[in-house]
Amino acid sequence: MTDSTELIRSSAAALADRLAAREVSAVEVTQAHLDRIAAVDGKIHAFLHVNTDEALAVAAEVDAIRAAGGAAAAELHALAGVPIAVKDLIVTVGQPTTAGSKILEGWHSPYDATVVERLRAAKMPILGKTNLDEFAMGSSTEHSAFGPTHNPWDLDRIPGGSGGGSAAAVAAFEAPLALGTDTGGSIRQPGAVTGTVGVKPTYGGVSRYGAIAMASSLDQIGPVSRTVLDSALLHQVIGGHDPRDSTSLPDPLEDLVAAARTGNVDGMKIGIIKELHGEGYQAGVETRFNESLELLKAAGAEIVEVSCPHFKYALGAYYLIMPSEASSNLAKFDGVRYGLRVLPEDGPMTIERVMAATRAAGFGDEVKRRIILGTYALSAGYYDAYYGSAQKVRTLIQRDFAAAFGKADVLISPTAPTTAFKLGEKLNDPLAMYLNDVATIPANMAGIPGLSLPGGLADEDGLPVGIQLLAPARKDARLYRVGAVLESLLEAQWGGPLLDRAPSLVELVETPVVEPVETLVGTKEAK
Amino acid sequence: MSADATISFDEAMEKYDPVLGFEVHVELNTKTKMFSSAPNVFGDEPNTNVNEVDLGMPGVLPVVNRTAIESSIKIGLALNCKIAESCTFARKQYFYPDTPKNFQTSQYEDPIAYDGHLDIELSDGTIFRVEIERAHMEEDAGKLTHMGGATGRIQGADYSLVDYNRSGVPLVEIVTKPIEGAGSRAPELAKAYVAAVREIVKNLGVSDAKMERGNVRCDANVSLRPHGRERFGIRSETKNVNSLRAVEHAVRYEIQRHGAVLDSGEPVIQETRHWHEDTRTTTSGRAKSDADDYRYFPEPDLVPIVASREWVEELRATLPEPPAARRKRLQAGWGYSDLEFRDVVNAGVMDEIEETIAAGATPTVARKWWMGEIVGRAKNADVDPGQLGVDPATIVELNKMVEDGRINNKMATEVLDGVLAGEGTPAEIVEKRGLAVVSDDGPLLEAIDAALAAQPGVADKIRGGKVQAVGAIVGAVMKATRGQADAGRVRELILERLGVEG
What we know:
Oligomer: heterodimer
Number of strands of chain B: 16
Number of domains of chain A: 1
Largest sheet of chain A: 11 strands, mixed
Strand content of chain B: 15-25%
Shape of chain B: elongated
Number of domains of chain B: 3
Strand order of the largest sheet of chain B: 2-6-7-10-1-11-12-13-14
Distance between the termini of chain A: 33 Å
Shape of chain A: globular
Number of strands of chain A: 11
Number of helices of chain B: 16
Number of helices of chain A: 20
Distance between the termini of chain B: 70 Å
Largest interface: A-B, 43 and 31 residues
Structural class of chain B: alpha+beta
Helix content of chain A: 40-55%
Radius of gyration of chain A: 22 Å
Strand content of chain A: 5-15%
């Protein structure tokens, strides 16, 4: 019997090697993570649903194939048997998908997302579905209809959002890998505040089919992990063309794993974006950011400064385009065909009134806020001033990036202006909440890839700081090449992974939680 | 509901000048839907030809059907339109349960085809040019059936059933520019225009083009203005007028109704109208103004459609001959006079005659049946001739029976009525009704001998060489055999009996 603490702290790459060598079984690995979820998720609340039976069945199948040997064993994917958690915005057959909303509570998708099909093809056991801000709208998971997720570094703090569940699950060693979605930073910002790695691929690099849309032109599915190499491994599983997504790129995927394994920055030009650091950024964030720059310089990179003058309009434009698309994408949730249906309490029972009552009861405040913003922005007479102008800003941001990438191979910035804030701190101040995404939003507006990796702990609060790398569209490999170098330099300095410094959750948890997590969200009846 | 006031058509024409506009929706006959891989099949069990995309499930994405794009380009080319080098889809947003996403994916600012025209030939051969504003692609909505109400409409219904089989079926919407100058020929032009569009899409093979199934649906816009005034009057839009006759009637009715409204000094209300085939009137639908806000915006889930010039030219090369050329060819091939051919076109049976000839009839026989028998019956039944239910094979079979002498022409029309009444095939009806020509010469000779004996004077005249007198004897024989004899054979036998050369 292998020590389960050691199993859950292993990287996905290390687990894959040990599974292939048959030093450990997939069932043992999966069970270790399920046990960890049972032990700590009562405090973290990273999961909305735990998929115990199916995950163990897939793990057992992998073990059986390996035991039988032969061609089938040889053809197993490198990550076969390595468990993964899936953000509950991505549809899965056999498990509920809620999008963090009451309006979908109890709904089971009749089809799998393309990325889920690819996980199944690779025989990766799916541990369950992770918490998120409702319909991925938020930067803290506090907008989940099923309660917030807590940051494993400090349970009183936010794990970021919207993908706080996936980031916290990985940071709390409940899963070695997770899937996230990133519309304005929902993979990268949670990565930053939980000391994990998250990648938003090039727009079109990973199929969106089966990811419940918030803003179609900005959304992108991507990997969440504890190491740069693990993200590359997962990215390679889920990436590549999908005929069911018209915006999916036809290009074959680059060899991202090779890029992560052969990281090298010697002679590379790395651009600091003038507009994305300094004023408005926490001192501890700035310090760690500058430290990373020094390490990269020492490794042979040339640090240059670039200016992206239109980034100051990015947040404003984002908060027109995103809600406009969201208001349209969320129109389908009306109680007619699936999900919640609420009947009006009195008055005539017309279809309009049933739709209105359903949406009034089913959507939370942040979702309603964005639907109203978007509906307004697209209205006749306002379209040109709002949506039209925002699209022009988008073009200007793309030009800023094009100019910047003329001077640098990759760009670098802090991922978020601050470390994790306290739960509740910004809940009543939407604008302050939105400002947390100021450094991540430009990449979505331009469709370029971005990676966040841990840059150390801020001196003033001892909480993780994220370093963001940005590359031109279709050049995701550069992120892994640079990210792997910076990660190894930082870890050499720290004497091990940053998460080694995170508090032990088992001590934090006063009494072990054995109750299945799913009862917390009331999806048991729906099973 | 009380009937709207109308004035006579002639009176309306005296005072006012009609302006028309049409939106014709054509359902494409692609194998799969506009944005999903579900089958595009009419008439199946409700909600069976659907997948997660057609139902608007969470997480789904549309993918454009390439064949639907090709069909749309072909329609645009046949309507003499320009084809956009690049065009986009847009979302037209409104909450209604026939649209599962609560928006319809359509085209808005940049249709695939624009700036075309169609030359329409009226019944007297006059050519009238209709300018085409645009032809754009969109998806059809599901079909709602409102249950429990008196009108079959959503108001007053107890509940509604929805069939999403039609949801996502590819549509091309063809929009005309305002049509001015049709004058009193406006109703006729309306019918001829829709007939021409139907003919085009049918010949292109891009639609089944069956109006009774909703493959081709027409919304007719009508407005009146006093003669001499440039500014258009306020229009009404009569929705889903689903037969050629109904298009003509609806335009005529709306002209008469608008005339009455304007005469009364009231403004015409801009609204949609519902057409009622039974009363040949329209009733008020919902008020519609140009300010309806559908919050259109570019569909972010679809990349622009790029139609390279090479592709467009390839498609142009596959187009069938234009309708005018086709008519010329058919007329020459069939040997009809100009008048005969125009009557055929005006009666709306050109395609049917072509199919009947293809099934084995001669052009003369095909015309005789369609123009002589079927058109009249269709008029009595108040339907388009093609919708009466006559199969070209039926005509070929009937004609063969006549030529073989098994039945005569009079019987053949009786058999046709039997076919239309659903009594079976011509052979079955002949059998059931005992309609066989008496072809055994024995009973005929007996009847001939009796007739000759009864009219010896006539018999002598014939013997003396006045062969035309044979008619009197033939008539007597036909009467005696209650019409079941083959008159030609009777004539032969009489002459033979009397030893006279016919």
